[in-house]
Write a structure and sequence with these properties.
The chain has 652 residues and is mainly beta. The protein has helices at residues 17-30, 97-108, 111-119, 124-129, 143-147, 204-207, 530-534, 568-572; strands at residues 37-44, 57-64, 69-76, 81-87, 131-135, 150-156, 169-178, 183-189, 227-230, 233-236, 239-246, 250-260, 263-279, 291-292, 318-325, 331-354, 361-379, 382-391, 396-404, 408-410, 420-424, 427-430, 432-442, 450-458, 471-477, 495-499, 512-517, 542-546, 583-593, 603-615. A 10-stranded antiparallel sheet has the order 15-16-17-18-19-30-27-26-24-25. Strands 9, 10, 11, 12, 13, 14, 23, 28 and 29 form a 9-stranded antiparallel sheet that branches. It starts with 16 loop residues before the first helix and ends in a 37-residue tail after the last strand. The structure holds cobalt (II) ion (CO).
């Protein structure tokens, strides 16, 4: 692996710390450098696709904390000028870290809230040790939600400052805080079950001793890894891509391509998590409003962890840092934000067959190896790992790993457990779902592309189906945006094929990639619910839109306290044509979470994702050229002869 430091800036590179500081200072001067100016997000403004020598620009979202006014600013870093300023008076961008701190202080010093805590029988020590979790509120039409910039504070008890607070919710006590005035607008205090008397911590002192029968597992790559990282350009065998961290979307991959016949063939121009929403299915006062848009309301990228070798990642790891704003015009470097490594991935292909001569059985097999590019973001109680995998057979995948601590509520012993499930004495987890929208700006063989929905269906009975056994794969093009909200159907193995019909592969077919869903789920909130309208993208698994650079976030640019109908429904109402066009796919991964006791006190990783497989993109198995592993002795017949009795003919 070669890591060079003096590489020219590529137009798709994220801002360096120096660029970020310079852009912030130019914007600040434009506003007269007020003390109340904060930077919520500062990122490189991506040039339009295909532009030649685009200016290096930064886009930023600023908040004036004295008025709460949001302003979007673009700075041209080549000329040092502000090129665009747009006020967004109705927008509620994610809360600043500053605002979280001030909101918590406002709650703690609020007399109404303190007396409600005392009313629950809590003393001053317990009140001071309590944990306040601040939540975006959604928008149910109240004056607080439509006219103020707010968060809701939910409270939990702790005996020690580092207790797992989620074990002891103070149910039904919620403080609504105005982030501009720094004051509590209202304290909701409804009769509720008492907090559980104890919580479960997950350190060994409290949860029990560590098991002692694990032997050492070392991953050694004595020659180093097989990938190469030059600046943000990552190459691994025939794959290449550009890797960066965006403050809102987190991990972004650009220009994913595969080298074939001496040239890099484009597959996807840009792949990222565009939005997330986690709707909860319980109607009680402390939970009905929980619909976290973890990306648009919080900013996944600014919340990514600094990863630790041996803990988060194992083996020969290359890390990439991320740079985000410190909210006051400076840069905050997230060390080791992105992890890049390769893994053994089991079997790539194998066949064993009998020779017609006396050599007996011969076995051919190849180990699969995969390239992993990943980040982990902590969004309050939950932790999300985002893993892109690339394989030697031309396929790639995304896997989301959800872990961390579930949302909890205090319950009575006789709770009927209809919209929640008991996980510990006096404690339940509410039913909820996680929907993650991945934006895939497709570019199969350079485009233009057409998406086909493919269903496997039996043929009609009749002369063409005399034995009633025939079935076909029916491909239907998605020709305009009004047809674009598609749902999964596992009964027909439904998948979506992204083809370049302008090109032919050597056997006369359109080269394509196929998106195959993993396990997923529909949104359970009714279509009349506000969340189904504010997060309409999550009601269908696949959307296809015509490329438009401003269409980036499928629940709208600012989903906090948003009005219904933003993003995907408004974009697709344009009904643009989609055949042989520059297309963007939006695939929503759904995770269903009926919480179980084993999810407590910290949840084992839950996985979900989707895969992208070549479909006629190559004219044969592209992994034929993968060499046999040094550890493997077969391919030459030896070592297999004595197994000849195990199998006599070739039922595959
Ligand atoms: Co969950």
């Amino acid at each position: 692996m070669v890591t060079e430091t003096s590489i020219e800036v590529h137009p798709l590179d994220p801002l360096s710390a120096d660029e970020l500081i310079r852009a912030s200072s130019i914007a600040s001067e434009h506003f007269g450098s007020p003390d109340s100016l904060r930077f919520l997000m500062v990122a490189a403004l991506e040039p339009p696709k295909g532009s030649v020598n685009p200016p290096r620009s930064a886009e930023m979202v600023c908040i004036d904390t004295s008025s709460g006014l949001t302003t979007e600013v673009v700075v041209d870093l080549d000329t040092g000028r502000v090129t665009s300023v747009a006020e967004r008076p109705d927008a509620q961008p994610p809360a600043l870290f500053d605002e979280y701190d001030r909101a918590e202080a406002a709650i703690r010093s609020d007399e109404g809230w303190r007396s409600a805590m005392v009313g629950r029988g809590l003393n001053e020590v317990q009140i001071d040790l309590s944990f306040i979790h601040l939540w975006p509120t959604g928008n149910f039409g109240s004056e607080w939600e439509t006219k103020h910039r707010i968060l809701k504070g939910i409270v939990y008890l702790r005996d020690q400052p580092d207790d797992n607070a989620y074990g002891r919710p103070v149910e039904g006590l919620i403080a609504i805080v105005d982030l501009v005035d720094n004051r509590v607008l209202e304290v909701v205090d409804e009769p509720s079950p008492p907090p559980p008397t104890s919580s479960l911590r997950f350190d060994h002192d409290h949860s029990g001793p560590a098991r002692d029968d694990l032997k050492q597992l070392d991953i050694v790559q004595s020659e180093g890894p097989s990938f190469n990282l030059q600046g943000h350009l990552l190459t691994w065998q025939k794959w290449q891509m550009r890797v960066s961290l965006h403050p809102r979307e987190g991990l972004v991959l650009h220009q994913i391509g595969y080298e074939d016949g001496g040239q890099v063939r484009p597959i996807c121009y840009r792949a990222s998590l565009a939005e997330m929403v986690v709707p909860y299915g319980d109607a009680s006062v402390g939970h009905y409003f929980k619909n976290a848009f973890d990306s648009g309301e919080c900013g996944i990228g600014r919340l990514v962890n600094s990863l630790e070798l041996g803990c988060d990642c194992l083996g020969e790891i290359a890390y990439m840092d991320g740079v985000v704003t410190d909210e006051r015009g400076g840069a905050r470097t997230i060390k080791n934000a992105i992890c890049i490594h390769e893994e053994d991935a089991g079997l790539l292909w194998k066949h064993t067959y009998r020779h017609s001569d006396d050599r007996g059985m011969q076995s051919w097999s190849r180990r699969s190896r995969r390239l992993v590019v990943s980040t982990i973001a902590t969004v309050d109680n939950y932790d999300y790992g985002f893993y892109w995998y690339f394989y030697q057979d031309g396929s790639w995948e995304h896997e989301v790993k959800a872990t961390g601590i579930i949302q909890t509520m205090a319950i009575e012993d006789d709770d009927p457990q209809i919209t929640r499930h008991r996980i510990a004495p006096q404690l339940a987890g509410m039913h909820h779902q996680h929907f993650l929208s991945f934006r895939l700006d497709m570019d199969v063989d350079g485009g233009p592309n057409t998406v086909y929905e493919v269903d496997t269906i039996p043929l009609p009975l009749g002369p063409k189906n005399p034995f009633y056994n025939t079935f076909t794969a029916q491909a239907t093009p998605i020709t305009e945006e009004s047809q674009s909200g598609r749902v999964v159907d596992s009964t027909s193995a439904r998948h979506w094929r992204i083809a370049n019909d302008d090109r032919n592969n050597p056997i006369g077919e359109s080269p394509a990639y196929v998106l195959t869903p993993g396990a997923t789920v529909s949104m359970m909130a009714d279509e009349k619910s506000l969340i189904a309208q504010r997060a309409a993208f999550a009601r269908k698994q696949l959307w296809v839109t015509a490329y438009e650079p401003s269409e980036r976030y499928p629940a709208g640019d600012y989903p906090a306290q948003s009005e219904p109908g933003q993003g995907m429904p408004s974009w697709t109402s344009a009904n643009r044509p989609l055949r042989q066009a520059d297309l963007v796919l939006w695939y929503t991964v759904g995770m269903n979470h009926i919480v179980r006791p084993e999810d407590w006190p910290v949840m084992p990783v839950q996985r979900a994702g989707f895969s992208m497989k070549p479909w006629g993109f190559f004219d044969r198995n592209p992994g034929l050229d993968v060499p046999q592993s040094d550890h493997c002795e077969h391919d030459h017949g030896h070592g297999s002869r004595n197994h000849a009795h195990q199998s006599s003919n070739g039922h595959a």
